[in-house]
Amino acid sequence: MIGDLGAVDATALAALVAAGEVTPSELLDAALAAVEARNPALNAVVLVQEGVARKAIAEGLPPGPFRGVPFLIKDLGAEARDFPSHNGSRLFANTVYAQDSAIFTRMKATGVVTFGRTTAPEGGIGAATEAVVYGGPTRNPWNLDHTPGGSSGGAGAAVAAGIVAMAHGSDGGGSVRIPASSCGLFGFKPTRARLPDGPYAGEGWAGMAIDGFLTRSVRDTAVMLDACEGPDLGAPYVAPPLVRGHAAAISRPPRRLRVGICDTTFTGAPIHPEVAEAVRAAGRLLESLGHRVEPARPQADVGMMMRAWTDIVGIGTALSIRSKLGDRPPRPDEVEGVGRGAWAHAQTLHPTRYLEAVGEIHAFGRQMAGFFDQGPEVLLSATLAEPPARIGRFSHDTEDYVGFRTGPDGIFAYSPFCAVFNASGQPAASLPLGRSSAGLPIGIHLAAEFGQDELLISLCAEIERAAPWAGKRAPMAG
């Protein structure tokens, strides 16, 4: 078992350490051996810092809930003094930090043994992870011809391959939930501002981006969320307070809920038939558990939201590039095509567009709040409109940034559900309940009202007990 960190979850590994049945050093040995054996095919784990991990063990790990468990942080955000970062980009390769971010400090306090980073697409843009700075695409352990998703694609691949039992990610338009769906994992996006952004950022993408975790079990996510939640010093706004906490919430099922089910996109367009059937099967499962399941589709301006999202992220990308290059355009040897396209798109926008777009995002959030206030307590849909895409389909070669996002074959057509809840700020999760005829994972998406993280994660835990997925593992994981 020590040689297979995907056989059990992080909570179980920590219990073995606490019982003296395995040491943190032995678990780290196993994780590094798995990197050596599996990562050449995946290209998911980068910037390994074995010495930092060994030193942390030798100096004594914090007595947290995951003491001794090997851990990886995404190579985008999670700033840490001992972990240089490429941030998915040649322009930011080998960035070093003067201090730890609040989220890294809180993750470290759980006792995890962080030993490296995982791949991310340049700028965190996209539903695939194929950044040039890592020398090639990151691949899916279920089928190497397919993407593990993005932008936390390396994290998803590493967990699904059994290299680690859980990993850090982040989600600005589905970037935890898309890899969770693609890799057969659990991914939970908390309510806006539930986790800290400082001190390197006041907020991510106008409040749409937030950290998260890729895990094999609901309980691992719940415990890590409890360890990391709450504002950091100087946070511009905070999430509604929790009542009992995520871990306490999963100790018992929620009350019977009104669940809206949508087996199309939120604009009524059809999705892949196998994915639609997986949604309906999840609806039947919820009905069998006593929940009231009825058809529902948000009456919100999704098109407006996606245009605003695209402009905000384009402006954010341009700002990031400007921090390195000033006002000159990025060259192809510095920034990939989509990033250059985002920079160029931002130059076409009126100076007032950013605030206008933020206002549209806020208006959309109010529309979604109204839908939940008058309708279902939980909305059930697919996570992605089809099974995991093939490698290369969402390459960053193109400079058509807007088409890459919103074109007929773009990211939003492929992933029309996730970004909705980044814009609204609501908690949302992807559960690994489906499988395509080709054997690829299909994620099922659940979302709840703003601030109702505990209710949502309690429902996720009830579903996990009713339809366990722990035994469903990628062939590469053994």
TrEMBL record:
It comes from the Bacteria. Coiled coil: none annotated. InterPro entries: Amidase, Amidase_CS, Amidase_dom, AS_sf. Pfam families: Amidase. Residues 26-456 form the Amidase domain. SUPFAM superfamilies: Amidase signature (AS) enzymes. PROSITE patterns: AMIDASES (PS00571). Belongs to the amidase family. This is Amidase. The lineage of its organism: Bacteria, Pseudomonadati, Pseudomonadota, Alphaproteobacteria, Rhodobacterales.
